């Protein structure tokens, strides 16, 4: 594998992380009113129909590429630079993930639980607040109160299961690929199934020493055509939230992931896209913070503002688009401030990511 191709591959992975996390923020911001089953008059599209189409396109279709991309990258990186996958290698990989996954998972959950305790205590007495918190501790750590952390939870489980992935990919390649295809077709609209599918695909390419950029480039044109057509169909059928959309959705995600790598790698190879270290280093912090106080106060403000402009579709579109951007900017400002004032704590919270 030529060294230049490897360089472009890892530059693509690094660069993609920030735009992908912005898409994650859009997943969690659907604007107002919060209607997940909108009725759109496709024969005579009004301004408010346009607002619904934009929301579906961004928050329910194109942004849904982000998390599968992250799982794919994680699966690939877990097995990268491995000559022999033995017990020592496995334990070494897990040890690294204690710092990058487990400790941040615990710390952000503790922060979320403390915020929840303070909110609950504001409405109840101290005894009830303590009882409420302790009675729900197990629930909070398995189904995170800081809900985007479900990704880290799933990633830790998948990391523990990597010897199984390695054995099946090496010894039962055809069964593995057939199994992934079945999971994708029949369960690709389910979040936990997608976790397995895309982590496994990343692991497969890495174990087989296949360069992501070179591999995806071979199917660049058909992948883009399929991604574009299924994207339009997903918008029309309200993504995975209808029976027809649920069938189309997995194919859009698969070919969307391939296409986003192809597009990014082309621009990186031509030096049009370049990594901004501040943005890359803030990705995990944005991911963990954007649904917590004080950032989530922005949601309340925008809901109230949207209510004022509920009869003005242009204002609703503008509010919907800028809300996640403001949240991302505030997260970066807090990250930079904490990195300056409390660098060790910030490193722990972000898993010492650079």
Explain the overall architecture.
- Helices cover 75% and strands 0% of the residues.
- It has 354 residues and is mostly helical.
Task: Set down the secondary structure blueprint.
Blueprint: H1 3-27, H2 47-61, H3 66-78, H4 87-121, H5 126-135, H6 137-142, H7 150-160, H8 162-171, H9 173-187, H10 191-207, H11 212-217, H12 220-236, H13 243-269, H14 277-281, H15 283-289, H16 297-308, H17 313-341, H18 343-349
Helix pairs in contact: 1-3, 1-13, 1-15, 2-12, 2-17, 3-10, 4-5, 4-7, 7-10, 8-9, 8-10, 9-10, 12-13, 16-17, 17-18
| Strand tally | 0
Mean model confidence by pLDDT = 90
Give Rg in angstroms.
Answer: 21 Å
The helix tally amounts to 18
Give the ordered list of helices and strands: HHHHHHHHHHHHHHHHHH
Category by helix and strand content: mainly alpha
Relative helix content: over 70%
Task: Provide the number of structural domains.
Answer: 1
What is the compact description of this entry?
By secondary structure, the chain is mainly alpha-helical. The protein has 18 helices and no strands.
């Amino acid at each position: 594998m030529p060294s230049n191709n490897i360089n472009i591959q890892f530059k693509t992975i690094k660069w993609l992380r920030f735009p992908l996390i912005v898409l994650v923020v859009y997943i969690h911001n659907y604007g107002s009113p919060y209607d997940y089953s909108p009725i759109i008059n496709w024969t005579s599209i009004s301004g408010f129909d346009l607002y619904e189409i934009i929301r579906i396109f961004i928050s329910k279709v194109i942004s849904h590429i982000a998390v599968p991309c992250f799982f794919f990258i994680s699966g690939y990186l877990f097995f990268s630079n491995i000559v022999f996958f033995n017990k020592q290698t496995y334990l070494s990989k897990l040890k690294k993930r204690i710092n990058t996954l487990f400790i941040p998972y615990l710390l952000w959950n503790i922060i979320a639980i403390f915020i929840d305790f303070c909110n609950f205590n504001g409405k109840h007495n101290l005894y009830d607040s303590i009882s409420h918190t302790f009675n729900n501790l197990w629930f909070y750590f398995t189904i995170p109160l800081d809900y985007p952390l479900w990704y880290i939870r799933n990633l830790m489980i998948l990391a523990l299961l990597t010897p199984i992935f390695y054995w099946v990919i090496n010894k039962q390649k055809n069964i593995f690929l057939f199994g992934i295809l079945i999971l994708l077709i029949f369960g690709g609209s389910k979040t936990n199934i997608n976790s397995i599918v895309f982590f496994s695909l990343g692991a497969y390419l890495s174990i087989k020493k296949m360069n992501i950029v070179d591999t995806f480039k071979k199917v660049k044109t058909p992948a883009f055509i399929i991604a574009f057509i299924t994207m339009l169909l997903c918008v029309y059928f309200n993504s995975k939230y209808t029976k027809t959309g649920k069938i189309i959705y997995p194919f859009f995600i698969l070919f969307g992931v391939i296409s986003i790598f192809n597009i990014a790698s082309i621009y990186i190879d031509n030096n049009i896209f370049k990594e901004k270290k501040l943005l890359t280093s803030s990705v995990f912090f944005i991911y963990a913070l954007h649904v917590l106080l004080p950032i989530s106060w922005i949601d309340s403000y925008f809901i109230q503002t949207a209510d004022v402009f509920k009869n003005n579709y242009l204002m609703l579109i503008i509010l919907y688009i800028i809300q996640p951007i403001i949240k991302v900017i505030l997260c970066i400002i807090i990250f930079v401030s904490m990195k300056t004032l409390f660098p060790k704590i910030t490193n722990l919270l972000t898993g010492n990511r650079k």
